[in-house]
Amino acid sequence: MPKPPTLATLTWQGDLRFHASTPNHSVVLDGDGAAGPSPVDALALALAGCMAIDVADIVVKGRHDLQSLEARIVGQRRDDPPRHFVSFTLHFALTGTVPAHAVERAIQLSRDKYCSVWHSLRQDLDLFTSFEVTPAS
After folding, report:
1. Which SS3 state, helix, strand or coil, does residue 110 take?
2. How far from each other are the two terminal CA atoms of the chain, in whole angstroms?
3. Dihedral sign, Cα of residue 20, residue 22, residue 87, residue 41
4. Which stretches does DSSP call E strand in 57-112?
């Protein structure tokens, strides 16, 4: 069954701020990044969030003891307009009893198959990933 379309409404709040809402949630997008994330920051958050959710889901479904996961993303942009992203570096920090091969597989599956945000971006964009696993205490 096909996924339903994504619906969103943005309402101008003045200056560079918009109230952005979907049928279930809302956020303020701010071009200045003061009242909420800028659209560019939101894109980086979406990529990190999509891949982090995939990694967590795959690791847990693999029956590994995942106690915490943090994803940190750094996006590099062109200096000249349109100032699009040219690369992302995404680092995952996991705590638990999770073998490295399981994390590597989860990241690869997210990148190659599951992360719809990644597959919606430019194909000439570089994505570098790394991870660390801290054993459960």
Report:
1. helix
2. 43
3. positive
4. 65-77, 85-97
